[in-house]
């Protein structure tokens, strides 16, 4: 018996700061088609989000009239429609109950998923978009567990009984870029392929008992200065040091079971090594979990049957 | 009885990355005259250090024939004459025994003080110039104790029985500059006078048990985003967070007695607050201790009587 592709039922959009992905989703939640564009919210010309959206779904002529759900930084102050946050703990029902609809001048309703906020010792934390990915991932046999989403602002997210229980953001990617490009640490770096040994050495330094990031960063300068690592290893040593410090800071001693890594393959490789050095196992989420999250939230809101 | 100014006996030069100070020093070690210039080693045109030096001491016509001693980044790879390092523990005699003389084309001998190195868990640490300041400071009743030298690359230095016993570098100032100018943290900053309350709040976050710098940095974004600190407080909150993290990393629990702060007044004010929050008292070193260090090293080497 051949499986028959179902009819399109939903358009899901993951619209971030630097890129944008749209999914044509079938009645069973499966991805029928997808498109990626570099038009993240910072790159939309003259803030014409509506025009970008029209161009995006244009090729899906058969999608006219479908419900549209969108998540990500598109709901931030610099996006299309700013939405409030829901608080942790929240899951698919809370997100479905907080959707913000917006009608375009063409009469299409785009339904926005709000972000989610938490607070640690008076310091708020925020995410927009990751909550939708986690909803999707938690449907894939991860209704309880720890997720890491590596990137410019890495997120560590704890899910309990299908609710996002808490999370914390780490500025690992942004600190890496700033130190590589705008500090003395960049001056001794030479380009080349991934140096796993140097990455592991840096990671171990970041994970070490008694590590002190502001001090350990200076080692990224002195190790090559003293010929202890080669110029083509400096960048991966720095990457390892920061990822190790992040993993250490994520309170890994309290983590039970494998960590689910949600991210680009090259970054996921690094986190897999770092987690292993920290004594943790890991799994990887499939690439299109965000579309699964869009579908589940749309279902809970009655946008699809 | 009037004191009579002694004759000039030595020229001391503290030649760093971004600036340069020269001292005309008397036979008793007192500073008779001094000059500051912005010609740090990165700003010396065409690497003409000899020309800069000639211009520097030119106005001191009466100084012809005096011994000249120079310390700082001028002895690094990007400086005038690269010198090796001495290792910790070392003091005035070890530095005097490792001086590197260099004769200019005018026949003037400039004697360079080498830097000092240490090693923690295989990661080397380096300084060039700070050792001379500490030698000078240790003569001022600090033959044992802890020194902090705030700056781009802050140093925490332990002196035991007049020897520099060990030290550690923290990239606090450079991380501050990179995050302020080249990360999302700068986008919500507004200029204004020093906000001590915000600085203290940041400092407390950096010092807190369980603080995690890569995570805590994200608070520098979310606190103003949620209206918990005003835009004109963001920069000082960031400064406090980093200085707090540095002080915490400097293992303050092991420090006995007041910490001697050696640095610019505005930075010293911040470290005084941070040390107080960490439960430590502090003192400040006078501004010209480096000239005292030059004199003591020159004396130990027999360059002055």
Task: Evaluate the radius of gyration of chain A.
Answer: 21 Å
- Count of DSSP strands of chain A: 14
Question: What are the secondary-structure elements of chain A, in order, as H or E?
Answer: EEEHEEHEEEEHEEEHHHHEHEH
* Class by SSE composition of chain A: alpha/beta
By CATH, the superfamily of the largest domain in chain A comes out as 2-keto-3-deoxy-galactonokinase, substrate binding domain
The level-1 CATH class of the largest domain in chain A: Alpha Beta
Instruction: Profile the largest sheet of chain A.
Output: 6 strands, mixed
| Count of domains of chain A | 2
How many helices of chain A does DSSP assign?
Answer: 9
CATH-assigned fold name of the largest domain in chain A: Nucleotidyltransferase, domain 5
Q: What does the average pLDDT of chain A come to?
A: 93
Give, in spatial order, the strands making up the sheet with the most strands of chain A.
Answer: 3-2-1-4-7-6
List the defining traits of the structure above:
homodimer, 305 residues, alpha/beta, Nucleotidyltransferase, domain 5, 2 domains, six-stranded mixed β-sheet, five-stranded mixed β-sheet, 9 helices, 24% strand, globular, kinase (chains A, B), DGOK_N (chains A, B)
